[in-house]
Specification:
The structure is a single chain. This protein is mainly beta. Helix content is about 10%, strand content about 60%. The chain is built from one helix and five strands. The protein has a five-stranded mixed beta sheet. It is globular and about 35 Å long. The N and C termini lie far apart (about 40 Å). The relative contact order is 0.30. It comes from Paenibacillus cookii. This is Glycoside hydrolase family 65 C-terminal domain-containing protein.
Amino acid sequence: MGNDMSVILIEKTPNGELRHIEERNWSMNMVAALEHVNYLVVKGQEYETIEGRLNVDEGKLELLLVRIRNE
C-alpha cells in the first residue's frame, strides 16, 4: 500500500442523504493530522468531520462530513 491511503469524503446533507464528494490518496502525515482537526476545506468549501470508518476490505478511510454554511 506504500505511504499513501485512499480517503473517501462523503457529505451528509441536511435532509440526511449521503453525497460522494471525492476520493484521493492522502499521505500518512495528512491521515495523522485528522487526530488534531475537526474541520476540512475541500474545493474551497469547509466541512466538519462527523465520523470516520476504516474499510479494511477495500483498504480505504471513509470520512463523513457536514457542510459548514459560510455566510
